[in-house]
Amino acid sequence: AVLGDVCFLHGMVPRGATVRAQTEVDAIAIPPSVILDALALYPGITGSFMGRLREIVMQLQGSLPRPAQALKGMQIFASCDLPFLRAVASVSERKVFFAGDACREEGVMDDTLRVIEFGRCRVERRQGGAVKHCGWCDVGTVLGERRFFNMQSNWPDASFRIATPLALLLFIPRQSFNGVLENYPSEQQRFRLVKETNKTDGGNARREHDAASLSILQGCGPGFLQAIAGCIRTVTYKIGHTITVQGAVDSGSMYIIKGGSAEIYVNHRFVKEVHSGESFGELAILGFVKRRSAVVRAKEICIVLEMPRAAFIAALEDHPEEQEHFQKIGRQHGVVVASTQWPLFEGASQKLLSLINLYARKHITAKGHWSTFNGEQLPEQAAILVLRGEMRVVTPDKGELVFTEGTCFNEQLLFGLPPLEGRLQPQGNCEVQIMTADIFDRVVLECPTERDFIMQRIVNEIARKAEQSMGFGRGDPGGALVLSTVIQVAADDFADQLRKRIDARIYEPGAVITEAGQDGDCMFVLVEGEAENEGDGLCHGKALPLKVGSVFGESVLLGVARTYPNRTRASTRCIALALTQDVFQQVLEEFPSHVELYNHMAMGSSQTEVGASELNVQLGKSRAFSNVSKDFLMVVCERADEVYFGPGDDIFRRGEVCKLGESLMYILLQGAAIVEGEYGDELGRLNPGDVVGEGGALGIAPIRGATVRAWRDSLVRAVRLHGSSVQRAVTAFPDEYQSLQQIFQKRASANKEVERVRQKWLQEQVIPALNTCRIFQGFPEPIIRKIAEHLLQATYTCGQVVCTAGNGADSMIIFLKGEADVYTKSGDLIGRLSDEAVIGEIAVLGLFPWRTATIRATSNSDAVLITANLISRILQGDDASAARQRFDQLCSERRSQVEAGMPLCILPFNVSVKDVVARAVALHAIRYSFNTGDVFVPKVQAQGPHYWVMVSGSMNLMMGSRHIMLFSSGSILPEHIAFEYGASIHAATVCEAYRVSFFDLLLATSVVRAKWYKHFEKLIEEVEAKVRLKLSGARSISMMKMRRSKTETSFGYRPDEGLQKGGLLPAMLPKQVSQPRLVGDKLLKLREDFKIYGDARGKAQLPPIHKDGLVRR
Question: If you count DSSP H runs as helices and E runs as strands, how many of each does the chain have, helices first?
C-alpha cells in the first residue's frame, strides 16, 4: 500500500486521514524533499502520474479565487476600483505548469506579471557553467512586478522553475495591461506613484491586506497587521477534508477562505456554507473558547489562509497597544470567555460562570510589572486566574511560585484567609482575570444556593496548593492520600478516584479534629498546619505533635474501629483531606478487585478499639510485660495511636539507634510480621498480640538488633506506643524497669545462639557449595564469604515447584540437600538433581533471563538463591577487582562460545554456528584449558550425566596407572562412565575441552529437534559402548591380579572388610543400577545410578585436587 498523494507534495495539503498500525508494520518513509529533488533532476517522472495531475488541475481551477479577487489581494492593486480590476482580469490568463517547467527563463526579456496561486518555484542562477539554487518562491509570491513597472529587478539573471509536481500561475501581459490602463485615467496617476515610491508587492503585503479585511482586526495598526501577515500560510484542503473538529482542543488557528467553499456542521446537523472571503475560528484565536464549536469540512477543493494563534499572541506581545482592542471584544463575549477555566468553579452553574465573567475584569499586564501596559496598577488583594502567559510570585517563606495558563492563586482570600505575601512578576505580557472579594460576594449573593458548593471548592483548591507544596503534582494519582498505607497498597486508579471525590476541611487553632471515644466515619491526612495528639484528654505531660503528612483515622475508615482512639486538636490553622466511609465504599464498588483486600482487614477484627484500657490488657499478655503492674502499662499506653504497614514495609530496621524517650514500640493487632537477622535470614514470625521493639523503646537495647517487616501477603495493623509515654512510665516505676532489663538480657543471649548456628551453617554447607560452583572459581575467599553472608536458606517440600520453564530468572539456585526432578516446558521428565546441583548460572551471568526447565522437589530439600543483583553489588566493591575481572572474563567467554556454537560445531555433523540447539547448549557448556599432565577426577553426577567434547589437544582416560583410551580433537568422552569405573582424565598435551550436561542437551532438543541429532545419538551410543567395554576389561584384569596376589592372602583380606575400611577394590566395583542412556529419539529408561563407592580411597592414590576438579603435577 502507498500512503500519500505525490501530486500534492509541498502544496500545503493536510493529510486526509489517520492511518494506525493494527500489527507490526515495516514501511519506507520517503521525505518530500527527496522526491522533489528527484523531480528536479528527472522531470519526466511526472509522466507516470500525469492523468492524476490533470484531474487535480480541473478541480483546482474551479476552486481558486477569481482573477479579480487575486489582484485585489496584491498591494499594487489593493486601492484600485473593482471595474478596473475586472478589466485587467479579463486580459489575464491562468496557466498550468508541471515539475521542471520553467515559468521564466534566465536572460529572456519578458514584461509579464506572474502570481503563484498553487505550488512552488525554485530560483536558479548559472555560475561558472553550473546551476546554483538561490531560493524558493511559494504561494502568493508576485514575480516580475519590478520589471513590469520599469524598475530595476531584484532577480535580473534568474530562472524560475517549477519545483512541485503541479503549479498554477496567473499571467498578466504588460501590453494588455497598458491597453486597459488607457481607459482608466484615474488609475494612471496611482501607478505613477508606485514607480516613484519604488514600492511593490513582494508577497507579504497580500497577506497584510487579507488580515486587514477581518472584522476582529479592523482598527488595528499597520505594524500589528504586518507582524501577523508574515505568519499567515496558505493551506489547501481536498474535497471532504475536515478543517476543524467539533469539541477538539487544537492549536486555535483562525481561517480565511480564499477559494472554494466549506460546510459547517454542529452536532452532525448542517448549519451553513462558507465561501470565498468568509472566515471562522475568531473566538479560538482570541482564546475565548478552548474547544471548537463546529465541524468545518471542505465541500470542494478549498484554499484557505491559516492564521496561527501562536503568531497572533507573539504579535500581541510586541504591540501591547492593541491589547485594549481585544479586551473590548472579550467583554462582548463575556458569557463564553473562560467559563471553565477557573479551577475553583468547575461544576458550577452557567449562571454563576456568566456572572463571574461579567464582573471579574480581564487585563493584560506589562512585562515584569504588576500593572497594565499603560502603567495602571492592578490590585494584589484578589484571586487571580492566569489566562495566558506565566506569573511568578516571590514569597518570603515558600520561595518562588510559578503559575501557568489555567491556574489561579490567592483564592484563599475569597474564603476570608490572608493572600500570599510576595511580589507579583508577570513573565511577559500576561493575560489575567482578577476577582476581588467584593466581586465574589456580589456573585454569590446572586446565586445563594451555590454558596456552600463554591466555598467547598475554594477549600479544595487551597488543599491542592498545599499538596503541591508537599511535592505532589496535580496529576499524581491519589495526591497526599498515598501517605496512608491503606491507600498505598491500592492501584493508582483507585487512589486517583478517591482523591477526585473527597473534600478538604479547614480547622482554626484550638479546634478539635477528632475526639477520643467519639464515633467517626473519616480518615484525615494533614496537608497544612500543625496539630496535637492529646490522648484521651486526661493524659499527663506534653501532647504529641502532628506534622504535615500525618495520617489518622484509618481504622475508622475501614470499619475496623468505631471510635477514634485520641483527641486531635489543631495547634495552628490546619487543612486536612477528609476521606469518608461513604466515598470510600462508592469507589470500592467500582473496583471489585480491591474488595477482598480491604474486607480482609474488616473481617479479621470485630471493631477492635485501641483505648488505653484495652491496650493495657493487650500489652499485659505479652511475655515481656506479663509481670509488670497495670499502672506501669497504663502510663506506657498514653496517647497510643494506630498505624498501618503495607506488605513488605519495614516496621524498623536492624542497626537503628534507640533512645529512651524517642524510640517507638508496637503491638500487632492484625496481620503478621517477620523478624530478620543481619543478612536477611528469617529469625521468627510475629502474630497479632505480639509486642515489637520494646527493648529499644525502653532504652535497654542501644540499637535495633533485627529488622522487623510486615508480612508480604497483607496489611499489618498495629498500635504505636510513643517514647515519651514509655519514658514517663520508666521514671515513675524504676523497680518495674529493672525486671524488664533482666528479661531482655536473656533474650539477647538467645539471639547470639541463633547467630552462632547460622555461622556454622555458612561455614559447613554454604561456603563449600559456593566453592564448587564454576562461576565462583577464582574468587578470593573473602569475596566468597561476603556472598555467603547475604544468603538465606530456602526450603522446598516434596512436590513443590522450585522454578518453572519460561518464567523470568535473575538468580541461580544451589541445592544443599535433597533431590529434584527436571522437566521440559512441555512436561516431559528429563532426569534428577541431587546435592550440590546448580541451576540458573546463565541468568546470573546476564546471558539468558528465563528459566530453561521446570524443577520439582522430590524430597524435602534445602537450597540457597543467589541473585544477579547481589553478585553485581558485591563485585562493585573496591576489594573485588580480581573477582570482577574473573566474572567479566567468564561472561565474555560464554558469549564468544555461543557466537561460535561451541562445542557442538566442532563435531563432524556440519552443525551451523546459527543452529538454535548448538547455541542453547553453548550457553551452558563449561570451557576448560588443560596443561600437559593435568588430571581431572570425575565427581558425583549431581546434575546428571556429562560429556567432554575435545576441541584441541588430546586426553588419556586412565584407571589408576593403566591407560585406557586416547581422546583427541572432535571426540566425545562420557564422564559419567569414567566416574562409574573410578577412572580419571589426564591431559596428554595442552588441550581445550568443553564439559556439556546431558540434561542441557535434552532440554534444547525438546524444543527444536535438529537434523544432525540422530547422528549425534548414534555417536554417543558407540562411544559409550566402546569406553564401557575397555573400562570393563581393565577392571577384570585388575580383579584377576588381585585374586592371585599373595599379599591379599597373607593379610586375610575379605571383600566385606575392604568395603568398610576403604580398600582399592570397591572403587573399581560400581554397583550396577539404572543409568540414563540415549536410544533412538528419546530417553527410554534409567539404567545406572551414579553413586560413590570407596571415593575416599580412590582419591588417596591421586595428587591433591583443586577446586575446579583439576590436579596440577
Answer: 38, 57
Q: Give the pLDDT confidence score for residue 1061 in this predicted structure.
A: 35
Calculated CA dihedral for residues 110, 112, 113, 116, nearest 10 degrees: -80
Question: Which DSSP state fits 377?
Answer: B
Q: Which residues contact 480 (CB under 8 A, 6 or more apart)?
A: 467, 470, 472, 525, 527, 549, 577
β-partners of residue 855 are 803, 822
**Contacts from 1093-1096 at CB under 8 Å and sequence distance 24+?**
1093/1059, 1093/1066, 1093/1067, 1093/1069, 1094/982, 1094/1059, 1094/1062, 1094/1063, 1094/1064, 1094/1065, 1094/1066, 1094/1067, 1095/1067, 1096/1062
Instruction: Give the integer Cα–Cα distance in Å for 1057 and 1066.
Output: 11
514: left (phi over 0), alpha (psi -120 to 50) or beta: beta
Contact 376, 434 (CB under 8 A): no
Closest CA to 673 of 657, 658, 653: 653
Residue with cell 472584522: 215
pLDDT tens-digit series, residues 1089-1103: 333 333 333 333 333
Residue 679: its pLDDT value, please? 64
Closest by CA position to 273, among listed 231, 302, 245, 238: 302
The strand pairing partners of 1083, in sequence order, are 1078
Which amino acid is located at 1109 in the chain?
Answer: G
If one counts every other C-beta atom within 10 angstroms of the C-beta of residue 928, the result is 19
The Cα 949–Cα 951 span in angstroms is: 6
* Inter-axis angle of helices 868-875 and 881-900, nearest 10: 130
Q: Reduced to 3 states, what is the DSSP secondary structure of residue 1052? A: coil
Predicted confidence band of residue 1054 (pLDDT cuts 50, 70, 90) = very low
Distance (Å, whole) CA 785 – CA 766: 9
CA 611 from centroid of its chain's CA atoms: 44
In the prediction, which pLDDT does 523 show?
Answer: 93
Rounded (10°) angle between helices 222-229 and 204-212:
120
Report which residue type is found at 204. Answer: N
Whether the per-residue pLDDT at 614 is higher than 80: the answer is no
pLDDT digits (tens, 9 = 90+) for 270-298: 999 998 778 898 888 877 777 888 999 98
Task: Name residues whose C-beta falls within 8 Å of residue 438's C-beta, 6 or more positions apart in sequence.
Answer: none
Residue type, 156: P
Rg (C-alpha) for the chain, rounded Å, is 44
CA 111 – CA 921 distance, rounded (Å)? 82
Q: pTM for this one?
A: 0.52
Q: How far apart are the first and last CA of the chain?
A: 72
Q: Is the dihedral of CA 438, 439, 443, 444 positive or negative?
A: negative
pLDDT bin (cut points 50, 70, 90) of residue 1111 is very low
Nearest partner of 815 among 830, 837, 831, judged by Cα: 837
Concatenating the DSSP letter of every residue in 564-576 gives BSS-EEESS-EEE
Q: Express each pLDDT in 133-157 by its tens digit.
A: 788 787 777 887 777 777 766 666 7
Residue 466 φ/ψ, nearest 5 degrees: -65, -40
Of the candidates 364, 233, 353, the one whose C-alpha atom is nearest the C-alpha of residue 287 is 364
Q: What is the mean pLDDT of residues 725-743?
A: 82
CA 246 – CA 296 distance, rounded (Å): 8
- Ordered DSSP codes for 518-576: -B--EEEEEEES-EEE-TTTT--SPPEEE-TT-EE-HHHHHTS-SBBSS-EEESS-EEE
The whole-angstrom separation of Cα 673 and Cα 645 is 10
Q: Contact 405/449 with Cβ under 8 angstroms?
A: no
User: How many other C-beta atoms can be found within 10 angstroms of the C-beta atom of residue 383?
Assistant: 25
